[in-house]
Structures are given as C-alpha cells and as structure tokens.
Amino acid sequence: MASVFGEKLKISIFGQSHSEAIGVCIDGFPAGFRIDMEKLSAFLSRRAPGSGAHTTSRKEADLPRFISGVVDNVTCGSPICAIIENTNTRSKDYSNLREVPRPGHADYTAFVKYGLSHDIRGGGHFSGRLTACLCIAGGICLQYLEREKGIRIGAHVSEIAGVCDKAFDMVSPEIDKVKTELPIAVLDENAGERMMEEILRAKSELDSVGGIIECAATGVPAGLGEPMFDGIENNIAKIVFGIPAVKGVEFGAGFASARMRGSENNDEFCMDGDKISTKTNNHGGALGGISSSLPIVFRAAIKPTPSIAKAQGSVSLTENKEKELEITGRHDPCIVPRAVPCMEAAMAVSLCDMIL
Amino acid sequence: MASVFGEKLKISIFGQSHSEAIGVCIDGFPAGFRIDMEKLSAFLSRRAPGSGAHTTSRKEADLPRFISGVVDNVTCGSPICAIIENTNTRSKDYSNLREVPRPGHADYTAFVKYGLSHDIRGGGHFSGRLTACLCIAGGICLQYLEREKGIRIGAHVSEIAGVCDKAFDMVSPEIDKVKTELPIAVLDENAGERMMEEILRAKSELDSVGGIIECAATGVPAGLGEPMFDGIENNIAKIVFGIPAVKGVEFGAGFASARMRGSENNDEFCMDGDKISTKTNNHGGALGGISSSLPIVFRAAIKPTPSIAKAQGSVSLTENKEKELEITGRHDPCIVPRAVPCMEAAMAVSLCDMIL
Amino acid sequence: MASVFGEKLKISIFGQSHSEAIGVCIDGFPAGFRIDMEKLSAFLSRRAPGSGAHTTSRKEADLPRFISGVVDNVTCGSPICAIIENTNTRSKDYSNLREVPRPGHADYTAFVKYGLSHDIRGGGHFSGRLTACLCIAGGICLQYLEREKGIRIGAHVSEIAGVCDKAFDMVSPEIDKVKTELPIAVLDENAGERMMEEILRAKSELDSVGGIIECAATGVPAGLGEPMFDGIENNIAKIVFGIPAVKGVEFGAGFASARMRGSENNDEFCMDGDKISTKTNNHGGALGGISSSLPIVFRAAIKPTPSIAKAQGSVSLTENKEKELEITGRHDPCIVPRAVPCMEAAMAVSLCDMIL
Amino acid sequence: MASVFGEKLKISIFGQSHSEAIGVCIDGFPAGFRIDMEKLSAFLSRRAPGSGAHTTSRKEADLPRFISGVVDNVTCGSPICAIIENTNTRSKDYSNLREVPRPGHADYTAFVKYGLSHDIRGGGHFSGRLTACLCIAGGICLQYLEREKGIRIGAHVSEIAGVCDKAFDMVSPEIDKVKTELPIAVLDENAGERMMEEILRAKSELDSVGGIIECAATGVPAGLGEPMFDGIENNIAKIVFGIPAVKGVEFGAGFASARMRGSENNDEFCMDGDKISTKTNNHGGALGGISSSLPIVFRAAIKPTPSIAKAQGSVSLTENKEKELEITGRHDPCIVPRAVPCMEAAMAVSLCDMIL
Residue D97 to residues B77, B292, C40, D21, D191: CA-CA distances in angstroms? Predict the structure, then answer.
C-alpha cells in the first residue's frame, strides 16, 4: 500500500471504514503553529455527511483526537497523529460483497491484490470515509498557508449532472463568494438548487450522478514547484487522483485549451502596478511546472457514486459465474458536494509540501 | 529541480536545449535485457522533428549513445546512461528572450526561480527537446513490457484544432491500427488529413493549435498499483504532466463520466470465458488505483504551441514595463503529433516502475 | 521531522513521551499475515522497563492497540496503525529542563529547531520510549521474516562497561543460545552477571554506563540489497542510527578489519555441499552492498545514558549563562539491555523493506 | 540498482569501470553558483591514482566534462551532468573473474543478482573508480558549503595497518593542518611515513592493508538534521557505506563511548562568548540527530584491498567446485589514502542535501 504522500511534509493515512479508528500521521509540519480547532472542526463538518436528502444518513462524529504532535493546540514539531474513532458502523450491510464485487468499486481489484484478508466492510481502506483523514491534514495546512503565507484556497461545485455553476474568474477567483453554508457549495445559488433537483431525481430513480469541482489557490508566490516531474500540476494531480472517484484533472483552461489557437490561449504578460502579471490565466498559475503568481486553478471530474440501488450485473468470485447484485444500505446519490473540502485539502497538502 | 521520476525504476533527465548534450540516467532496470536498438531508433524517430510543413525544420540526429549500463546491447544491471549530443543549435535566435519572456513559456517562472543564471537558450531544460530523453527511457521500457510482460502500449492523436479522430474502443483499443507512419498518427486517415489542414491554416495565420492524445495499455494484469496516492492514475498523471504543454489528464470516461448516471458509468462485471472482465471500460482500467486487467486508457490535453509568429504583449524584465514581443526562429505550429510517442513513453516508464 | 523509514515498507513513528499516545503506522505490509499477538507481546516486554535495579521503575503497560490494518489478528493489506496509550507520566519531573538543557540529550538541539513549542516533557519525541513503536513494527517484521522467509534475527549484549560477552560465531551465530530470559541478554551468563555489577556500581556512584550490542540475521538469501547507496549496510545503518544513543555501527569484522591484512580479512569462497559459501565471515554477509547468504552481522555502540544523578555543567537558555544542572527522577543507569530488541526490530524492518 | 542518493539534492551515479564513460547527474543544485574548476580538478586529483608505489599505475585522466547544467562554469539550475570518459582500460586482465569470484569483492553477489549479464570488467559498477563520480558531486558541494554557508570539511588518514596519526581535536579539528600534498594525507608526517612503510611491506608480501579515516565538518549551524531516521548520523552513514570497502562508521567518541561513564562521555554545555557550546565533543556534533554547532566528526573503517596477488581459495561458478584464484593486474595495496577525498565528498553531499 502507499497511502503516504509528500516529501517535506509527509502524510500517512490509515484506517478502514470499519476498523477501530481511522487517522493520519503528519510528519514534517513546522513547530509552534496554533491550530484553530474550531475552524478545523467547521472545515471537517463540510465533508461530513449531513442530514440532507442527498447524503447518507449515517452519522459520523468526525471529531479528530490529536494523540501526538500537538500540545495545547500548538504543534510541537513532532509528527502529528490525529485519529477518528469509528462508531455506529453497520457491518452486516456489506456481508455479500466479498462474494459479488460492486461495479465501479475497488472490491474486485482489492480482492485480486489482498485476497480474502481484505477488509471489505464498508469498502475498507478504499472507503470515501478515509478522505476525512485527508481533510484533517488539509485543514491544518489550509490554516497554515493562510496565516503564514497569505495563500487562500477555495473550491466550489462547478457542475453536477450537467447543471453548471458560474465559473471562477481565473485571474481573481471569487473564493469568498462560494456559499459553503449551502448543501451544495456554489457561487450561483440557483445553479445549486437545480443541481439538487437532479440529485433527487437520480435518487428517486435508484441512480446516482457525478460532477466537476473547481478549486483555486490565490497568493501563491511565483517560483514554487520544479520542472518536469515535481511541478505544481504533477504534485496536485498525484494527490487529487488519491480522492476516490476522481477520473480527470485539468489546470487553467485544461481540455478547452486543446481547442484554442496559441494566440488565444497564451496569457500575455502585463504590469499590474509594479508587479508582473498576466491579463488572462489560461495557464492556471503554472508555467513549466513553476508557479507564476497567478491563481492556481484546477478542475476535477468526479464519477457518479458507484453504489446505486438499481440491480446490476456482476460476478460471483467464489463460483466464477455471472450473478446479479443488489446493493442495500445507505449511499449518497452524489458525493460531489462532500468532495469539495477534500479538493481544498488535497491542494493545501500539496502546496504545503512544496512550500516548506 | 526534480527531473527525477520513479521509485523502483528511477529515471533522471538532464540537459538543456543548447547544452553539450542531453540525456537520461535509468536506475533499477533489470539486467540481461537485450535492447533492440533499431526498434528504439524507429521509436525515437517518431518524436523527432520531420521535414513536414507542420514541424520545425531544425534537424536533430537524435541517436542516443549509451555510455553506461549496456554491453553489446544488453543491460548489465548497472544504471543505464544514454546521451544525445546537441549539434546545429542556432543560439542567436533566442538572444532577446532573457529580457522579454514569451507568453505561455517558462521563461518568466524560470527567471524568478533561477535568476539570470538560467540557461534560456532554446528554452533550456524546459525545452520540448528534453522529451527525447523521456522517449529513450520509455522506448526501452516499451520493449521490456511487451517482451517480458505481454503489455502493449499505443497512442494516437485524438483531436487537433477540434478535428477528432475515431476514439479507441475502450475494451479492445486498436493499438495496431494506429497509422504511425503518417505525419499525424491517427486511426482515421481522413481525420488526420483534416487535422493537417488546420495546422497549416494556423501556421499561415502565424498561429498555432493544440489537441488531445489518447493512450492505451493492454495486457496489464489485475492488481497493479496501490490505493490512494500510488495508484495507476496518480503515477501516470504525475509523469504525463511532466511533458511540456499538457494541461489535463483523464482516465477512462474521464470528464464525460461527470455527466453520466451511475447506472450508465458503472462497468458491470462479466465472465469472459474463465476470466473476470467488464463489459465496458469507463473506469479506464483502474478501480481504487489498482488495475482491473481492462486496458488502461488516458487522454491528455495539449495546449497550442506557445511560440507563435504573431506579435504578442509581454514585459521587459529589466525595465519592468510592458513591451511587445515578436518571436523569430522556427517553431512547430502544432506539437501534438510529436507528443504521441512521448505519451507512450511516459506510460511505459510509469508502468515499469510499478511492475518491477 | 522525518520519523519515516523505508521505501516498500514505510513505517511512520509518532508520539512524545507524554503525549496522549505513541504509535506507528506501517504502510506496505503484505495482506493475510497472522500476527502472533502473544509472541509480539513477549517481544515487546523484552524492551519494556523491568523491575530490576538497572532499569527505571516507571511502569509501562506497553501493549499496543491495533486501530487499523488488522482484522482478527490478520493483516488486511491496509496500513497498520498501532498505538500505545501513555499513562502514569510524571510530568513535573521535567519542568526545569526547558531552561537548562541536559548534556548528552537533544534538549538543546530540539530547542534550536523547534523553539519553545517543543514538547520537552520526558524528552518528547526524542524519548527512548519511542523505540517501543519501532519494536511493534519490528516485532511484526520478525515474525514475517521467520515464518515466510526463513530468516531469523537475534541480538545479544556484546559488551557493557568493558565487560565482554562471548562473540557470535560469524558463520553460525548462536541466536538460539542468547539467554533472553535474563535481565541482560547474553551468551555467557557469567559475563552478564559481571555486567550487572558494573551497572550497579555506576548507579551507586550516580553515574551510567554504555555498551555494544551484536545483532545477526541468518537465512538471508544471496542477492538482497543494491549497490552504492541502497545496500545492506546503508539501509541497516540508516535505521540503527535512529535508535537513540547509537554512536557507531560496524558490519562483519568492522573496525577490526582496518587492522587486518587482505589475506586475513578476505573470506575465501568454498563449497558447502552444493551451496557456495565462505569459510569465514569478516564481510558480515554483504559484499558490494548485496547479501552473500552468509549471516548479516552488525554491532552498534551505545553511549552511556546521558541522564545521570550527578550534578553537571550546563547553561540557562533564558539567561544565556552557565548554570549547574541536577537531574532528578528515574533513569536507567544503562539502557543497553533494553536496546537489544530494538536492534533486532531495526534489522527486521530494514530487511523486510528490502525483501518485499 | 540504487545508485541514487538524496532528497533535495539527488545524485545519480552511473557507469562501469570499462563502460564508455562514468558520470553523475546532480538534480537540485542551486542556480548561479560558480564552480571553481581548477579547485575541483585539484580535489579530484587527490582521489586519482598517483605514481606512488602504493597506488595502481593505471593512469586516469579523471577530468570531468560537464555536459549539462553548467554554462560558463556557472550552474544554471538545471540538472548537472558530468562525465569522465573511460580510456586505457585493459579488459583482458579480468577475463577469468566471471568464472571464479574474487574473495572480498562483489563478483559473486553481483553474479547472483545480475547473472551473466553483469559487466564484470574491472569490477563494473562496483569498481572503486566510480567514487570519482561521488567526488565530482562532492567537490562541487564542498565549494558551495564553504563559500555560501561557511562550512568546511576535511579528512585525514587516522590509521593504516595499526599505525595511527594524531587525532583531530574534536572541538577544533585541525582541517587546515592536514598535509594533503603528501601521498598519505595526515596531520603527523612521521605517522604518514610509517604508514607508507607498512603499505610497502604488505605489497612486497603480495598482500594489502586497511585503515581508518577521520572526517570533520566545521561551521555547521545548530538545528540541521531531523530526529530518528533522517538525522545527521543516519544520512552520513547511508552515503559513507556507499563507498566501497567501508565496514564501519562512528561519530564523535563512537565505539569508545561504549566504554565510558555517562559523566565522562556527556559534553557539558558552556558559554563560548555569547554562543552556547560544549566543552568537549564526544557527541560528534549531533544530538538526537540534530546538529549542535559543534564540529561533526565521523570515522570510517576501510577494509584492506581485497585484490591481492597471493593465491586465494575460491570456487568455480560454472563447475560448482572449489578452485584456486590468482589475481593478476595492478592493484593498490592500500586504498585508504585515495579514499580520503571520497569521505569529504560523501559528507559534503549529505550536508548539502540536508541544508538546501
């Protein structure tokens, strides 16, 4: 396994959906940083399943317990370990999945890799629940980047089931205008409502939907990142693809730039007072892997939740024959809204690793 | 800098566009493998600039010289170092770029990072020429994967300037049907011709175009890759974003999956004789970061060549004021065709690193 | 911080002497391995402080709690996290150490690195107590190496305060004859008794003593390890120097080989039945960084416990002037006996990382 | 293979004794540093085989050619690659070694690992000749540390064949007084002469001798290095064990500290003007893995040259039976003098990696 990310800031995520606890060990975080625990808790609650119709009704008291590295809410320089105890897990829901893998899930590939010892309950280590650990690490990094480096990171749901939110202004992304208090964090409340309608429609049809999240960081100084394999894009992509269900990542104009002319896609340099800037930001904040001081902007495609109530074709791993599968239990018809803070967390961890 | 990729197979790329030589050091490649030098040479020539109207007329005799690790064309287990001498470089073309950075290039970010010592001639270490080194390493890995592991990798130009080639069949990608002998490697020759027209049109308008490349690997056994941060997608994305001009990477159905229903996107498992397979391959060969035995398929978006002949706005770094820039010299109006073998090379290096 | 070790098997150690818990996250351990918890517990108790006169009287109930990665004592392939809750910590003993650093301890260097936020209580992350985490990881690796690979690892106290135990036979180290049930694990019980006398003498004189531990692994197949920087010696030395108080590491004949002639030091190859072996083992099981199938043998020098009851010269960090220091509290007059399982654990983790 | 060292400064060494060239790729070295090529050349010549009776008479024109990363002797921020062409190699000397491995060499272990493809000529990648590459990287790092960081590194032969040089003063090592112009770099010229007598005596008896090198760095600021596995000692040991023939490494008082009392070994803190220091330096400059500002001092044990002219017992790998071996060709009866700059280089690379 390799649930470890980073060079200078190493995070090591552990836990399964139904293990005693899940958690994260953060190695390399600077000493003397006061964690605003209330803010961290508020951040984590954005990822936690709510009571809305679009989320699972499983209650998660996802309050992390810092068992090392933090004294009186201040980091002491030693590795930080935070855990979340697992409670209220209904293991019986998953009893038949060891035999019949769920389409779109890691059940089958985990079976091939780990055999019968794989902890399949609730998806085990592959569960989306593990992103809570990423969010703990990311939540601390977000605070550090903002307070110590003047870097701010924010994301919004850009699209769900074909319904689009207003896009970020690439030069001045409206991070502060994202309505994070809504069930779906968007810039345009109406778009959010229509997204919700689509989610509910899919749910009522025993189905699920996917979407796209747009994430931006402002205040990143020019010169961060390395050419070739350790650039801004390489490192962010590496961690973002670690969030379950992500199927694509693009920076700046991304795939749209493939259809532009050079004269249209190139961002001309200009003076912004004394500061060198660009008039547009199709490059998404990185040139040659190195930050340009323009906002770093990426979008990630999230596939529809694979767990749907509809009957699906699958196979019996014990009998080696095709077998229909009906998934019971509670499942989000759309995980995109809850993935928004995960994107912010991933970007924060990645930038912290590069900036330290 | 961090022009090093891989864990078990480490490649370290060096050189600047106008340094004495460029090259790659490959550490961890198995001993006893006979490199088919003719095949490698043919592979490299696919990346080399041709004589066609769509490519730079600079002649590159990109024949690598193996200065270590290979005895009588057989790897000896020691690190392999291959270099390509740089010749026929017209340094004067680039003389004014240190003062006025080219939009869309790394000139400015490299200046911030390395100061005046940065070797700006020909783009220095950021030059697309350095992908020749990736192709040397990748070319060897391609041979190894095919001969020793039964894994085949192929790519084609999926789109240029909005003109689309036929897509790969995701379950059985037609790797053998890609017309690599054409100036633009496509499945559908007509599409290739129309792409070429668009390239020439852009050129005549002193402009450039971008595109999308689709790359597939068949024969990858199930169980390769690790969950979270060392999965198939994480590692391929990390190396692919190391190829200049890549702005997005997607796997399987990618961004399109964001608009699908779960019932539509999920790949149902089925029996293919005695073997477990899926009927469709929207997942692109990896579930939970681990290969499923279905073809691994990714697409990469390539922005239009930033070097265009049209005048562009920029700034003078010495005078800190805006200044118009006209780029002279030879430049590809479209680098997408030459990037096709680079994608194959990147995927081969990444899979080799995971499989060794 | 960088309390992370390994490539294929990554262990990440966290905790401070007085944090809520200490622990280790083990990433990359194979699935399906049954941990013999009783055996692990017995192994850990060898490191735990006993009731003997030579150890601190602080009671440590060092039973690890596996919060992830293990289901019904069987590894499931996911990262394993084990923690030990800290209890019975007498924090007040250490109140003055933030001002006046203890000679021979990391108090001063930690202050320089982490400032006043450093958790100095009980030595914080630098405490010898953290070796319990190494022993958890190592204890599991020892079981794995023995059961799955036929590799056995054992260590004994080679020397304390100048009193020497019988040395291992380098070709057939008597791992089974080490008397681990004694307060000091030795081959020769008499030597152990004389060592204990020296420890008690030092204690009565408010002082401490150091020593040397010899550790051997048998059954390591030829061909393990890499040349140059990832060889057997490099990797073992890297982890062994992570055990507090280690000041030197030598392999095979070690420093003694520096005084030998080549004809004396060279280990001539011979046939041992059908197997190639060497008659002697001055090389300590590795040639060119690669294992030879002979036992891997190293010795580590452990300095005397720096915490002594005698008054010592130090400085006041707040007043920047010299100040005498008297250390109160409980301290081992000799940590060498408790370090024996730590050496076995370190070697096991290192070999596991190379063999996986 | 893993001939790669470092995190922030990565060096990747390639080449075999008889390959076209040997060399090193240095990734991560800062831009804008002027390399004093004359000084580098002088440093490399200290490692080169001389004309003295104690060294091989093979002439090596070990002048590196910088093929990338350096423009007009100034680093440009891109990876630096330097190569040394191999000339004047007498391959025929080594013809029978593939069949009969030399005792004390890596011939056998390389055969197990790489099979018949291993390039055995001259020891291949295991040849001491490869340390020239380490010395190129280290020579540049030495200049950087001295000019940019005020850190100076020097080493001397501490012992050969039992004849000892004066030891460094651990608090103020006499780096400037090492007589590097002599065939054997020592503090005490008489000791050096007696060492040479021992070398010549061994040579005349068709034998070889080993020794110990002491290496020190002054000016290292307090706070460098990380606890546990990335400390000063861990990292230096990891690279030093990459130098062929090293069998032990100790820091500060090293193995001698194992025989001291705590009161004797502890270095009491004191004020040195306004600066906190210690009166003695038994700790060798690192406490808890972190530098204390005292000189970092290590000693490395070098085994006697395994290639001796005396007949030795070995085995035939093809016939699987014992067979006597007589090694012909030119071999140093003692490599210790030539290893002195290698130690300085290793320490410089390791410190640079930690300080960048």
Answer: 17, 46, 46, 22, 36
Of the candidates D3, D74, D81, the beta carbon closest to that of B79 is on: D3
Cα separations in angstroms, C11 against C23, C63, C235, C244, D23: 10, 18, 14, 17, 33
Of residues C7, C78, C227, nearest to B7 (C-beta) = C7
Q: Looking at the predicted structure, is the pLDDT value of residue D1 above 60? A: no
Choosing among B24, B97, B240, B261, which should be mutated to test the A contact, i.e. which has the most A CBs within 10 A? B261
Q: Which residues 66-125 of chain D have a CB within 8 Å of chain A?
A: 78
Q: Do B290 and A113 touch (CB under 8 A)?
A: yes
Which CATH superfamily groups domain B4-355? Chorismate synthase AroC (3.60.150.10)
Q: From B81, which residue of chain D is nearest by alpha-carbon distance?
A: D14
Residues 221-260 of D with CB under 8 A from B: none
One DSSP character per residue, D278-338 reads ES--TTTTEETTEE-SSPEEEEEEEPPPS--SS-EEEEETTTTEEEEE---S---S--HHH
Q: How many contacts, defined by CB atoms under 8 Å, are there between A and D? A: 3
- pLDDT reading at D124 higher than 70: yes
Low-confidence ranges of chain A (pLDDT < 70): 1, 50-62, 88-95
A20/C77 Cβ within 8 A: no
- B30 close contact with C: CB closer than 8 A: no
Q: What percent of chain D clears pLDDT 70, i.e. is strictly above it?
A: 94
Every domain of chain A and the residues it spans: 4-355
* Residue C8 contacts residue C28 (beta carbons within 8 Å): yes
Element (H, E) at B11: strand B10-14
pLDDT band at C57 (very low <50, low <70, confident <90, very high): very low
Q: What is the mean pLDDT of residues D262-280?
A: 96
Judged by a CB distance cut-off of 8 A, whether residue A289 touches chain C is no
B4 part of contact set with chain C, CB < 8 Å: no
Size of interface B-C (CB pairs under 8 A): 3
Chains that touch C (3 or more CB pairs under 8 A): A, B, D
- pLDDT, tens digit, 9 for 90 and up, residues D4-54: 999 999 999 999 999 999 999 999 999 999 999 999 999 999 998 764 545
* A chain contacts of residue B279, beta-carbon cutoff 8 Å: 313
Are B39 and B144 contacting, i.e. CB atoms less than 8 angstroms apart?
A: no
Give the tokens for residue A100. 């019949």
Q: DSSP string of D332-351?
A: -S--HHHHHHHHHHHHHHHH
**d(Cα C215, Cα C238) in Å, to the nearest integer?**
15
- Contact residues on chain B for A271, CB-CB shorter than 8 A: 315, 320-322
pLDDT tens for D179-189 read: 999 999 999 99
Say which of A109, A241, A313 has its CB closest to residue B233: A241
